[in-house]
Amino acid sequence: MKWEDLKPGMSVRIAKGHGSGYGGRRGRILAVGTFEGSLKRIGALVDIAEPLLVVIEPEALEEMPEDQLPPGWEEFEV
């Protein structure tokens, strides 16, 4: 993806085989830009539904369709 396409709240997937060890995981972008006191943009802060947040560069992210339900839930008719 490009920097311009990244927006907070967007649902994304991290590219498989990413060096962070979190490749293939889905998450939601919380913030985009500068982190850790750096003056340059370094990536997007992504919530991957674990007790940590990861910073991933835009090239390693792909947009995913919005999930209607959280992981582990499903719809059925009563």
Characteristic key phrases:
mainly beta; elongated; 0% helix
Describe this structure in words.
The protein has one domain (3-63): SH3 type barrels (Roll). The chain is elongated. Helix content is 0%, strand content 36%. The chain has a 5-stranded antiparallel β-sheet with strand order 4-3-2-1-5, with no helix packed on it. The protein is mainly beta and 78 residues long. The chain has strands spanning 11-14, 26-33, 43-50, 52-56, 61-63.
Radius of gyration of CA atoms, rounded to a whole number: 14 Å
Q: Indicate the CATH topology.
A: SH3 type barrels
Determine the number of helices (DSSP H or I, runs of at least 4 residues): 0
Q: Approximately how much helix is present in the residues?
A: under 10%
What is the topology, as strand order, of the major beta sheet? 4-3-2-1-5
How confident is the prediction overall: mean pLDDT?
Answer: 84
Quickly give the structural class: mainly beta
